[in-house]
Amino acid sequence: MRSDVNRRDLIKRAAAVGLLAAPAAGLLSACASSGSGNDKGTDKGEKSKENPFGVANDAPLDVVIFKGGYGDAYAIEFEKIYKKKFSGSKVSHLGTQEITGKLQPRFNAGNPPDVVDDSGAQQIKLDVLYKSGQLTDLTPLLDAPYIDDPSKKIRDVLQPGTIETGSFDDGKMYQLSYIYTVWGLWYSGKLFKEKGWTAPKTWADFMSLCEEIKKSGIAPFTHQGKYPYYINIVVMDLIAKHGGPDLVKRIDDMDATVWDDPAAKAAVEAVYQIADKGYLLPGTNGMTHIESQTAWNEGKAAFIPCGSWLENEQLKATPSDFEMTFLPIPSLDGDKLPFEAIRAGAGEPFIVPKKAKNQAGGLEFLRIMLTKEASSKFAQTANSLTVLKDGVGSDVQLRPGTASTVTALTAAGTNVFNYNYINTQSAFDTDVQNASAELMAKRIKPADWLKRVKAAAEKAKKGS
Asked: Do the Cβ atoms of 7 and 289 come closer than 8 Å?
């Protein structure tokens, strides 16, 4: 999710090459040295069943939203719901892509907002915030009543993996990853119908189709070259599907031996062939996410990797008859997971800073987000799903791309996987991204990529 600067997520997901290290280090030292600030917040009201956190009716609420692929209109709708409940509250709203630039000084001064959607290329890294004691433990949120059915707790109505994605070394959840994202390849249904192309299920068929597409005068593939997070969707999903869930866990655990595994070698060599055979749209490696995605919308390239925020991010650039369609990463020979297996899970991290003045209001805002009313509004305004189970009403009309992800999730069944190292090992993630940028530019070979990533895992393991 991103816009003119870039986005997440993922997740969390996107980071410009080399952009992360310096701001993160500066924040860590600054946060560690920052002194005053009330960890519990200063604005408190009476607790009750309807007001489990004790939000004061007249306490201001300060909300900062990453204005990327999902926009921030949905958050304004959430704020309206909050205002109905706490009529005396003045809600301030900032939608921005400059999360670090706008918020690092506030964290350093002990005066952070009450709620932050901490995403994008300028995300303040969550592991840095966690290690410097800047995040509120969200366990009270998980144990709070679900507004739509108070007999249930919030933890009971979340999609599987949501709590784990938001948890750190101590086993507690510190971020609410609100959006249920699906990652993979995307293509135009209209273009494929016109050309008589069939979406491939195997990597061999994918490469054969790429050759056919190239001969037609269209580039087979583009990616968001300046932000190698995106090409890693293909690399890391191929590894997961070829090596199975155990390999995913070992990668998250910074087990450096995983990079000697044949699955890793096969995946990296497969992706390298896209560049080596000339299947990339010319100029791809220097493109921003918007530039490459718009070129794809214009029919200059057939495939692009992305998360399911793509449809909303590209609304203005997508022709009405484009038929945006999701495709799981095609299978290598001998995969342990089926073609239908996909990477999916909770993304777009929302946090309540530990030194938030209205910490109770921040927690209540997150609880309001986890209602069917809010979840449906998100689906309508941001064209994506949330982590609330059955969170979209039957009256909500989904766009083609989003609908295709629902179909893919249904087909995947239990064959769903996800990585968490992007949250917990941001320095390693940056190293992997940098290596992939070099790989796609053909400045290094697959064997070099594996050596670099193995060394990065060893370094991360020593530092954990």
From this structure: yes
Structure tokens at 427: 């320095």
Q: Locate 429 and state its tokens.
A: 């993630």
CA atoms within 13 A on the CB side of 272: 18
User: Does the pLDDT value for residue 396 go beyond 70?
Assistant: yes
- CA distances, 166 to each of 112, 174, 177 (Å): 20, 6, 6
CA atoms of 353 and 318, how far apart (whole Å): 37
Mean pLDDT of 234-240: 99
**Torsion (CA) 142, 148, 152, 157 in degrees, nearest 10:** -60
* Rounded alpha-carbon distances, angstroms, from residue 27 to 128, 328, 433, 461: 8, 37, 22, 22
Mean pLDDT for 23-37 is 41
Query: Which residues are bridge partners to 206 per DSSP?
Result: none
Q: Report the alpha-carbon distance of residue 184 to residue 331 in Å, rounded.
A: 12
Rounded to whole angstroms, how far apart are CA atoms 450 and 43? 51
Q: How confident is the model at residue 31 (pLDDT cuts 50, 70, 90)?
A: very low
Positive or negative, the CA dihedral 406, 408, 413, 417 is: negative
Q: For the chain, list the domains and their CATH numbers.
A: 21-180+346-406 (3.40.190.10), 182-344+422-463 (3.40.190.10)
Identify whether the C-beta of residue 175 lies closer than 8 Å to the C-beta of residue 118.
yes
Q: What CA–CA distance (Å, rounded) separates 208 from 361?
A: 55
In tens, the pLDDT along 81-91 reads 999 999 999 99
Give dist(CA 390, CA 379) in Å, integer.
12
Q: What is the mean pLDDT of residues 32-49?
A: 61
Per cent of the chain over pLDDT 90 is: 81
Mapping DSSP to helix (H, G, I), strand (E, B) and coil, where does residue 135 land? strand
- 186-196 tens-digit pLDDT: 999 999 999 99
Contact residues for 50 (Cβ-Cβ < 8 A; gap 6+):
none
pLDDT bin (cut points 50, 70, 90) of residue 268 is very high
Task: For 171-228, give the secondary structure using H, E and C.
Answer: CCECCEEEEEEEEEEEEEHHHHHHHCCCCCCEHHHHHHHHHHHHHCCCEEECCCCCCC
Average pLDDT over residues 210-229: 98
